[in-house]
Amino acid sequence: MSLLDFARGPALQWSLGIFVVGVLWRLLGVLLLRTRKDLSEPRRDAAWKGLRLIALRSWPRKEFLGGTAFGEVLGYAFHIGFLLALFFYVPHVLFFADIARGLFGTDLHGLTGLNWPTLPNGVVTLLSAISIAALVAVLIHRIVSPVKRLISNFDDYFSWLVTIAPLATGMAAFAHLGGWPYERLLAVHLLSAELLLVWFPFGKLMHAFTIFVERGSTGMLFERKGASL
Amino acid sequence: MTGTTPTPREPDPLEFDQPRVSIRKPEHRFDSQGETPDASRVERAMNSFVRDFGRTAAVYMESCIHCGMCAEACHFYEVTQDPKYTPIWKLEPFKQAYKREYGPFAFVYRALNLKPKVTVDELQQWQHLLYDSCTVCGRCSLMCPMGIDIASLVSQARHGMFKAGLVPHELAAVTERARREGSPLGATPKVFADRCEWLSDEHEVEITIDKPRAEVLCAMSSIEIMKYPESVVATARIMRHVGADWTFRLDGYEATNFGLLTGDAAAQKELTLKIIHAAVACGASVVVLPECGHAYTALRWMGANMYGKPLPFKVMHIAEFLAEQVRAGKLRLRKLGKSATFHDPCQLVRRGGAIEAPREVLQALGVELREMYPTKGANWCCGGGGGVVAIHRADELRHKVFKIKMEQIEQTGAELPVTSCANCRQTFDDGQAHFKWDKTMHSLLELVADNLVEAEP
Lengths: 229, 457
Fold this sequence. Notes:
The complex is a heterodimer of chains A (229) and B (457). Chain A is mostly helical and 229 residues long. Chain A has helices at 3-8, 10-31, 53-56, 65-88, 90-104, 108-112, 121-144, 146-151, 154-175, 182-199, 207-225.
């Protein structure tokens, strides 16, 4: 079995399996915990309106902007770059379509009802480069900032590594860097993405799911009291 | 004073009547209560921390991304720039214990020993972070991009610290005294009754005590009873002015709840139930809470949960009560014609939701309201909440934090700084004395009482 066959075959199946089971385990592990009914008289009945915090907290209140804008902008830069490159790069879309056919017997259009749009390669390259640059800046900030350095642990650095790795290997494969055969570059790229999938449920990457639950819960709790959001 | 033996270097923790004196070089110390062995202390702390772990708290523990932005919201970090005051760092041992003992992947963490066991040394060090340098003001909760309510986790960690017997001496002492005597600062029922009698004579106002049936039950905070007794008079005057059918009750007059601040859940419940039972006994439809932020949290937002069923009465902070009377046209006030700025008590405003009520009352007093920046929910804490003002070794740090407030108030140029929390007021009085500042914090309640326009007979 070649490295590419391994990356496309068992490694992909196992990493997807670990990702799905791990994410469900961790999410259900907390979501199935009991909550106690709050018996206090609400100030506002429509607590669900607090769900607006999910959108609201996407940018800091103006009072906090001074010290946090730098981190926020970097965060947005690498998140947006990463997600656009992941979901709208032509070879990625073809690859996902392949997986969808394998798993569900239908392509992306059949699965989602969408005509999946794609981005030109040049745009994806630029986005990936921005994302990598932002991630490097994020790492430097983590090391240089006394606050971030103190509160950081293995998870922070390893999650950073598994996030930048697919971007870097993807760029390398696209540019045929290093004089390696394309198949090997592609295999390494796939394996790096699979590493991300495997690590995903165990570390901080899980915030991709929990952020909505957290913001939503806090929003509803606070809205009920009329407290500041 | 009973309850504790003051060491020669420190003023008595319970002595609030005397001017507070800062200790220049406080001894580095950790307090502990009881004779529990170290290992059991840690176990008790963690068991208690995770015991009441519901879904929301667990989700909070799962998803801090260590962005460090909460530091920007914390006044203790703001004035020191010391990373250890980063709010989420104040929970580090508890985060560690959660992952190791309780989270969905706890078995992995334990099996591979990925998160070491928390030690009693760590907990002792964290005492400073969880008590001396956190007012549970919740400003960090407003900043967290993940939406984690960090302040609620600090309260939960304090439960663990209490169970481990690792609470600052002053808080442990006052909580114990509150349970024993009915008041943390010596305002026993007898003292309260005597004070009311004396105040009634002195100020020629009727102070109703132990009326068998009453529509409104009023409660006071011990700081008011002992340090600002004019607030008791002000409450009585206002109740009479609006024609309320009201009373104090000697079985439930004390709204201060040090159980909440210390992390002593049983004491908190006991103190809360006293007021609830008193209100039920006199058939009150409204309980009016004093100018005290955490008393509001304790009864307004946590009372029913302690009682185990919805409260059969409405709970209002005095500022909310006053605003309601203004709206009903029952409060006739002299216009002050001065400028004022309002210091938002965190538990009342940011976390309690009574944001506009105090401002409505100020409006009715005819003041020109000059808001601080930031204000309302994002306002800076006075630095004395969450029990911090009672912890002597925290004085130096608290005074640093207080400078933020002084600057904020100076910038407004307002003549009258006003607040609606006796604990904030006490912190301001202490800060004023320490910095020889020329601004005195005013109580909204007393300002209203001093400017009532009585109807012609």
